Sequence to fold (64 residues):
Amino acid sequence: MLEPAVVYLKNKKIKVKEGSIINVHKNTLHQIIAPKKKTRLLEIAFGDFDENDIIRLSDKYGRK
Fold:
């Protein structure tokens, strides 16, 4: 069974359940946290974008 993830969008904490859709607009601070059990996430980007334009503030893998 999949557990809900937690999405921090701006200053809001949202528990995301299976089938939920969260829209994250350009230049919006966001973070997705998966629980300890299985979680699946599908990210779809619209328009022109480049992976090199991502600004990481911090993560547990040391990417910044």
Observations:
- The CA atoms of residues 5 and 34 lie 5 Å apart.
- The chain has one domain: 1-64.
- The two ends are 32 Å apart (CA to CA).
- The chain has a mean pLDDT of 82.
